[in-house]
Every structure is written in C-alpha cells, then in structure tokens.
Design goal:
The structure is a single chain. The protein is mainly beta and about 190 residues long. Strands 1, 2, 3, 4, 5, 6, 8, 9, 10, 11 and 13 form an eleven-stranded antiparallel β-sheet that branches. It has a two-stranded antiparallel sheet with strand order 7-12. Strand 4 and strand 5 form a beta hairpin.
C-alpha cells in the first residue's frame, strides 16, 4: 500500500470525478484575502468546511449521549460563514467537496496544524473503498475558550492510500449506512 501523490490526485479528480469541486493546487488567497489553505498538496488534498454546522448543546436535553439512540435535539444547527464552538465542546460540519473513493483506495483524514495549534482537533473515520458523499467532520474544542472554525477554508487533509490488492467487500458492497450522505450527518445506529 502506498500513499498517492499530487499527480495521481489530480488525474483521479479530473478523469474520474473523485473530488468535486476540485482545486488542483494549494489556494492561500481568495479575492485577495488570506485564507486557511485548501486544495491539492504534495501527497494529499486539503478539504474545506461548508457553511452548515451542528453545535453540540445540552440546552434541550439532559440525556446521556448514546450513539445507539442519538437525539438530534443535542445539536443546534446553523448556516454561517463561521462557527463558534463552546469551550470543551464539539461541532459537526461537512466538507464542501463530494468524494467518490476508488475500490482499491483508503483515505485517512488528519487535522490541519493551524487548528491543532489552537486546540481544535478534527476527527474523521477513514473513507473506505467505494464510499461516496460529503465527509462529516467532527471538531473538538479542547480549550477552556470558545474556538472559531471558518467555512469555505481549509480544515483537514485527506491522504490517499492505494492497496496492492483489491479488497473482497467494499463499503458500497456492504451497504454502509453513511453511503451517499450529502449534509452534516449525525450518528446512525
């Protein structure tokens, strides 16, 4: 299994629609304004966060957070150019980009250092072979202060690993419950 380069990422995005919309190089300025970088890097792709956010709250419930019986009242939904995550809390968002993962590729997501150095951790489980959709991003604010996440700017880097052998069962074959998601998707049992 090897990590894939910018040349491979560009080819797969252009010829196979692996990433849409796609930016073939690193973008650091938009309309003359400095942004947190996004687009293709040497061995990865820096994704952007869309304007849809779900911020965790205990305002509507005093229940336990249960992944098998998750209540959507645990979130407040907003659509803004940024999101303020309360101290020691988290928020969900989604990528601007829609992904179509090839059947012999596994994608691992890592947070960008700009946010990590502010105490904001990005978590995404691996994108499995033949998974497709907008990626739901989980942001944890580990600090005792509110933290700001910017929409339409870079938030995490996707690393593409191509296997030297085809898996027997892909995410699509298995009928994975997050297949084809298009918005911010809370946990499903």
């Amino acid at each position: 299994m090897s990590i894939k380069s910018d040349k491979w990422i560009n080819r797969m995005a252009r010829e196979h629609g692996m990433i849409e919309p796609f930016e073939p190089q690193q973008v650091r300025y938009v309309d003359g304004q400095k942004v947190i970088s996004f687009g293709t890097s040497s061995y990865g792709y820096d994704v952007r966060c869309a304007r849809e956010f779900k911020i965790f709250t205990n305002v509507h419930t005093s229940n336990v957070v249960d992944p098998k019986n998750f209540s959507e009242t645990s979130f407040v939904s907003i659509e803004e150019d940024y999101c303020i995550i309360p101290p020691n809390s988290f928020a969900l968002a989604r990528t601007v980009e829609y992904f179509r993962i090839p059947s012999d590729v596994l994608v691992v997501c890592l947070g960008k250092s700009t946010y990590a150095r502010c105490g904001v951790i990005v978590n995404v489980t691996p994108l499995e072979p033949e998974w497709e959709g907008h990626v739901t991003l989980e942001f944890s604010n580990t600090t005792p202060l509110p933290a700001k996440i910017y929409a339409n700017e870079g938030v995490a880097q996707m690393l593409f690993y191509q296997s030297d052998e085809q898996c027997e069962v892909t995410y699509k074959d298995r009928g994975g419950k997050y297949m084809g998601q298009t918005g911010v998707t809370p946990p499903k049992a």
